[in-house]
Sequence to fold (490 residues):
Amino acid sequence: MLKTGQDFLEGLRDGRVVYVGSERIDDVTRHPAFRNAAHSIAEIYDLKADPAYRDLMSFEEGGERFSAYYLKARSRDDLVRRTECHRKIAEMSYGLLGRSPDYIASFVTGMNLKPELFGRFAGNVTRYYEHMRRNDVYAAHAIVSPQAARDPNFWQKQNIPTPSCRVVREDDDGVVVRGMKMLATGAIIADEVWIGNILPLSPEAKAESITFAVPCNTPGLSLWSRKPLEPTARSEFEAPLTWRFDETDAMVMFDDVKVPWERVFVHNDPLLSRGLYIETPAHAYGNHQSNIRYLVKLQFLVGLASRIAAATGADQVPAVRETLGRLASLEALLAGMVAGQIQAAEEWPTPGYVTYNRRMMYAALNWGVENYSAVVDCVRELCGGGMFQMPADASVLDDPEIAAFFRTYWHTPQMDAVERMKLFRVAWDIVGSEFAGRHLQYEKFFPGALFVVRNHNFREAPWAEWTAMVDGLLARMEPPAPETLPLAAE
Fold:
């Protein structure tokens, strides 16, 4: 069933516990810290429900329609269909909503190409997939232990429990968990939250190896938001990106939360707790979405760079055109890696299914982590001091006399004053605002620290094939027999 935006918003008024500092938020759909971001997600649901996009963003199975990101790909055409749905969703936010509803849904769909990996919990994984797609669920995730939990010896010496989320009791009807997980981007405006472990756990960390999913209004669960940025935007004119797309990040706190057994996917198995992401297509499906979202964001940044250069005629300067050409080549490079994930699709993990090429997917993740700062810096350099030449806010247009001065002296031959002001407001919001700073940090770390991303690339590389090329050459290099050597010059 495909939800509408109104269905989604009504579902958020469910008694979830959200804290901003000491303030408890009762309705995130109306609170100034979250309302616009919540409505941005609602727009995604409305787009999917629009008959004009029905075939692009959904598919039919068993007489029901489901969002296209729940499609289990059996061909390259199926992968293309998933990709185009991701692209349409990303374009709605200019690639700024990193954890839109298609993200975790893709992870769970990927897991269901190999549910037998989960052993006695395989049925739970399959049923959760059916629950998500039938109810068009928007799930967030938190799959990293808090930084304070990374030295277990400290907590043992202090004789106090680790802050990491862990099982503290097993009952007939489920497990009870206590502790924290980070960092649940989007959870404050999501239906449910998936909890797990993307980093390796020690064999002794069985209690922490729990993987499960629960609704965000589960008793005992609370979401602790970072500073919301949406309230810093006075209007969409002043900060158009902050105004609509601050999806929030939050710590997830569990205070003796009961998790029913049917919502448990891994328990007492540290190896599987991490392995489920890379031994199934979960990582390939989920991070392909990330690649698409990043590509759309890059296209937005390159388009913004072009507009900024054209606003003053700088686009006619050879050095500026060279910079724009470099940005265009970077976009084409990433687009090629995205296309390659489909063209070089793998028949994996089981016969009958295909998956986005994992090596190219991880390479694109690595490219993104390494290059986002440099791309933003190019946009910053093209802006120069233009952003600081603009009046403080749009109230300059309220007074006819002041507005006349502004329109007369701030325009250029290429663009009128108000359009320039709008352009530089957008530029500041992605280059210099707090929202921009959050995105700079996000793009560096959302797939994990750089060494984590590179280790994924190392793991998937065909080292045996590459070293065989070297070994083949070495095998030809037999020392020559002495009699075949030329005589030394006398």
Remarks:
- The mean pLDDT is 94.
- The radius of gyration is 26 Å.
